[in-house]
Amino acid sequence: MESLHNVSSAITLESFNIPPQGVIPAFLFASLSYMIILLCNLILIFTIVLSKNLHQAKNLFLLNMPINDLIGSSAFFLQLIKEILTDSRSIEYSPCVTQAFFIHVYAAATVLILTAMAYDRYVAICLPLKYNAVMTHAHITRIIAAVWVTSLLMMAALFYLLLRLPRCRSKITQLYCDNPSLLSLVCASTAVNNIYGLCTVAFTQLFANGMILYTYLHILVACFRSKRSDTKAKALQTCATHLFVFLLLECLGLFTIISYRVKEMTPNLRRFMGSLTLIFPPTLNPIVYGLKTREIRENVMRFFRTVTSSRCRNRVLHPSC
Question: How many structural domains comprise the chain?
Fold first, then answer.
């Protein structure tokens, strides 16, 4: 164990073990993955913001999903790309804590945003006549604000409890910084941190899963009672897409949380699943919601047609015109 007084301010992360000839391909793969996530989520954001016909409750909730995905993926990929490029697995403690904070905010906000979206679908399908009266802009704003304030405050308290503790180690066996990894550097009792962390997970999971279960049971009942087959099919398709994204996130997130408490879990599997949580959902969400939502898909295609037409008018001799 390193001396408490001599502990380095730099944190050493788990090595990638990339051979010299693999550095450039790894850098290009990581950069390309991040650029795809960036491009897809920005297209979704700008499509919703710039299209007035998309300023509806369900799309205002959806707008927060790509914003949150950019927070999580940027916190992960920017540090990852830097480490690959510089061939360094060392990071200062403050940036490490910052990365961990935003990764945890991303995780908490994702669950709460999906819960808010489920509530919106419940009101739209089960209480269609009251939808406009219930889902006013003021009510939507309050829900969105509650999602972000709750996520930020929960994680601020989590990391306040972490930063009050002394460190006596400087090596993390994870590919990125997160709260459990930072707690492993502490040389004091972490009982309070562990209890608060478990309470935070329990609260978000019980609230989210309880709300999802309640809303989807009512939605299924409403769909099967509906005599309009087109309405039933559209509602079930929307809910199936939402439920798929939610279950995917839950499986990845819960596996990562449980893996820290199962000593028999191999570190490589833990690192792999933890990385998937930060790569897969931000890549999949804009594709699923962008391509599966007809209004958004049509607006994206209209935007690209407008750009292409403008390009052709300005450059008549362009081969694509």
Answer: 1
253 within a domain of the structure (yes/no): yes
Residue 229 to residue 210: CA distance in whole angstroms: 28
SS3 87: coil
Range of the domain at 242: 12-306
Instruction: For 268-281, give the DSSP string.
Output: HHHHHHHHHHHHHH
- Any idea what the CATH number is for the domain that residue 294 is in? 1.20.1070.10
Mention every residue, 6+ apart, whose C-beta is less than 8 A from residue 240.
none
How many whole angstroms separate alpha carbon 26 and alpha carbon 87?
11
**CA-CA distance, 188 to 165, in Å (whole number)?**
7
pTM here is 0.85
- Tens digits of residue pLDDT in 183-212: 989 988 899 999 999 899 888 888 888 888
Cα(first)–Cα(last) distance of the chain, in Å?
Answer: 68
Q: Does 5 fall in a domain? A: no
